[in-house]
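Our platform keeps sequence and structure together, in a single record for each protein. Such a record has a labelled line for the sequence and another for the backbone structure tokens. Nothing more is needed to write down the fold, since each code stands for a local backbone conformation. For reference, a complete record is included directly beneath this paragraph:
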Amino acid sequence: MTDPKVLRDGLFASGRALVTGAGTGIGRAITLRLCELGMDVFGVARREEPLAETQAFAEPLAGSFSYRTCNVRDTEAMDAIVAEAGKGGLDLLVNNAGGQFFAPATGISQKGWNSVVDLNLNAIFAVTKAAYPHLKERKGAVVSISLSGVDRGGMGFAHSIAARAGVLGMTRSLALEWATHGIRLNCIGPGTVVTHGLADEAAKALLDRLVSATPMGEPTPPEDVAELVAFLASPAGRLMTGQLIQIDGAAHIGPGLHMLSA
């Protein structure tokens, strides 16, 4: 049995979500699953074409999908988008937009470091902070997509690990600060997720090595991540907050996922 869908139809009827990076990969899978469950999803990504494709896939589903194009690092523009998406309150914010390049630490320039940290940490803080009053209105949840092994390190992407470790620290701090308002915040650490973007970026040999380094011997399907996001936003996850949940086939307790060889 490989179908990860276990949540009931109509679970999020009349619910409202904001998903960043909704045009492709994990973000698209999350968006479509939320729409299947009846949620009205507002998506953000840099390019319109993939967002339009996501909208076409969402058309026959129970919920709805609308979108705006924006670079999540543009704080002023994102503040306006969060205000638009949050009218009437937000049940869920998914911080999915992110990215990095792979290089040894000695090969990462200061500009490269700053760019990755800005995208994977600073932008997430800004969007989450902007969403606070809208989340408070509905006692909503925040799920930030992280990395497998973010708490143990990984060779070849020190900048991204550092940024996402910062998101984990922020998540746990805000989970404490916002608990009295009923807002829950968690991180998900997927393993190797084979999306079109990753397949284009990494050589097949690297993908094979990452999967072979996973004790369960298989990548993490985007649909599995999507179902976990939905679970965390559901009543079943109402007491889960401040957590890093690894969905990686035990990669984080195995050899680890490294972009470079020792």
The CA atoms of residues 142 and 185 lie 5 Å apart. The first strand starts at residue 16 and ends at 20.
